[in-house]
Automatic annotation (TrEMBL):
Residues 64-91 form a coiled coil. It comes from the Bacteria. Keywords: Coiled coil. InterPro entries: ArsR-like_HTH, WH-like_DNA-bd_sf, WH_DNA-bd_sf. This is Transcription regulator ArsR. It comes from Corynebacterium efficiens (strain DSM 44549 / YS-314 / AJ 12310 / JCM 11189 / NBRC 100395). The lineage of its organism: Bacteria, Bacillati, Actinomycetota, Actinomycetes, Mycobacteriales.
Amino acid sequence: MYALVAQLAEATDSKPVQCGFESHLGHQIFTLIRRPSSLSGWRAAAFSCPPLAALLEFWNCRIMESLAGRMNELLDRMRALEERVDALEGTTPSPGGSETTGSVGYRGEVNIGDATYAYEWERPTAHLTGASWDETMTNLAATAHPVRGRILQHLLHHPASVAELVEAGIVTSTGTGYHHLSALQSAGWIQKDSRGHHSIRPKRVVALLAIILAMEEA
């Protein structure tokens, strides 16, 4: 801004400016440029010099217009980013749409102790929404007990017999342990070896952890 005012001052030394001010205006502005002690000094000078006040008002408007344009540009970019995030997190069903498309899947590769589990599964959305959920809900319901949750969490790290689960304080008695283990085994979550040790079926490890993850609040 100082450079522009200086150019105006130089121009007014030799001829009147377009708005009709005399050449001595250039000397007045040049003096203000050389000794602008403070912003208040500029304002005071502007009141005593109407042409300078008009010039300052003009550039003030230009600056505000530039800031407003920049703000609108930033808002547009923010809206575009929000739309991209919404698209990544999930789409909103379109009103009146009847077609079911897309797919749902999960995958994972985990190391627990000395064991490594890798699994991936995916199904079309139409298959998941169209098939009966009865058997799936029955198998899922087998895990819906705090004691069974503790059993599964323990078996993730340590295959165990019923007696070992009692000793670890996971179940209160062998009878209770057999009851819960039988339900989990019937639902396909765990398996038992020839020594009577129970463990989670390898292909269920990632699925179990995916269910736990899915129930976390985003």
